[in-house]
Write a structure and sequence with these properties.
Length: 272
């Protein structure tokens, strides 16, 4: 784990990159920010979480760091020890945690619960979609007030550019840099279940409602139909080993969606 603090004093915000070592967009965004002439008006902590996996180009070494919080300092597994250290490092700060993904439909914010503080941080990202993933346990942002952002497709340039834009907006909205920002009024989705399966081709679109009876995945002529309507979230053909992705409900519609055509958010919610 690599930790650095910009500015003087005790930071109230932490930027986290590489919880998954092969998702480098947050690392690039932070370095772009450091190299720019944008000045911080308050201290900021940065954590490159899974430095070992990052250097190896792996998602993780032993176990998924984003599933083992709060971890175990005496474990023989790298990520469980790391989770315990990471928990200490993040404690008492508001966290923005950058990810990229195999699935389409980004960028969007991810929270572990829709408490007011988490939703406020999600609004500070300026993104138009928020996914509540408290269904899954052990996430890095679960034990702290935090928001994760899925910036786009893995290591492509677009994900890093999106991460940099989200970072600047977040810092401005949280009062750490003196510049204009957008506070979004996002659509909120809550993950309610998952679709297991290996080797399926995902045929629908993330965040686009799948109706009851509709085919959303296929493998060698074996089709998967929705028992009841849902919104696919983080669904993809190759994203997970044994899971197509998640089923979500849309629990609220933000004002961005009510004023169609005037996308004031910075998230390209283009429904791809
Ligand atoms: Zn990730």
């Amino acid at each position: 784990m690599h930790v650095e603090t910009l500015g003087d004093g005790r930071p109230q915000h932490t930027i986290v990159a590489c919880v998954h070592g092969d998702e480098t967009c947050g690392w690039h965004a932070f370095n772009r920010f450091k190299a720019s002439d944008v000045e911080l008006t308050a201290p900021l902590k940065f954590v490159l979480a899974n430095e070992r996996a990052f250097k190896l180009g792996y998602r993780y070494c032993d176990v998924d760091l984003n599933r083992v919080m709060p971890g175990d300092a005496s474990s023989d597994r790298h990520e469980e020890r790391l989770a315990a250290r990471l928990g200490h490092e993040l404690a008492g700060t508001k966290v923005l945690d950058f990810h990229s993904t195999e699935s389409r439909g980004g960028p969007y914010a991810v929270v572990a619960g829709t408490d007011a503080a988490s939703v406020h941080l999600a609004r500070s990202t300026g993104l138009d979609r928020v996914v509540d993933i408290s269904y899954m346990g052990g996430g890095v942002t679960q034990a702290v007030t935090g928001v994760a952002v899925e910036c786009g497709y893995y290591d492509d340039e677009g994900a890093a550019t999106t991460a940099h834009r989200v970072l600047l907006n977040f810092l401005a909205a949280e009062g750490l840099v003196d510049r204009e920002s957008v506070e979004s009024s996002p659509d909120v989705y809550k993950v309610v279940g998952e679709e297991r399966g290996q080797g399926y081709r995902f045929l629908a679109d993330n965040f686009q409602r799948v109706e009851a009876g509709e085919v959303f995945a296929e493998k060698d002529g074996d089709v998967r139909r929705a028992d009841e309507p849902f919104y696919p979230v983080l669904m993809s053909t190759h994203g997970y080993e044994r899971r197509i992705g998640f089923r979500a409900e849309r629990v609220s519609v933000g004002s961005r969606a009510r004023t169609a055509g005037t996308n004031v958010g910075i998230g390209g919610a283009d429904g791809q």
